[in-house]
Amino acid sequence: MLRTAIARFLRDPSGATAIEYGLIAALVAVAIISTLVVFGANLTALYAGGTGSAATVIGNAANSL
Fold it and tell me: Which residues, 6+ apart, have CB-to-CB distance to 52 below 8 Å?
């Protein structure tokens, strides 16, 4: 019964579509995580300086680059 269900899933084109969407979602997650790792310190400094005016925050972020 399980073998039949797996075979039916592999023959069904929507199964391939589901796998493709899963791979795309995984690649997007990897891109987001790697971006946060690279820019994490700058983002933390940007949000930590949020108590001042917007110009001060932007200036501090630009100076930290």
Answer: 60
Burial of 57 per CB tally in 10 Å (0-12, 13-18, 19+)? middle
Rounded distance between C-alpha atoms, residue 64 and residue 31, angstroms: 23
32 φ, ψ (degrees, to nearest 5) = -65, -45
Distance CA 41, CA 27 (A): 23
Residue 32 tokens, joined: 């987001």
How far is the C-alpha of 46 from the C-alpha of 57, rounded, in Å? 6
Q: What is the pLDDT of residues 13-48, one digit of tens each?
A: 776 788 889 899 999 999 999 988 888 888 777 777
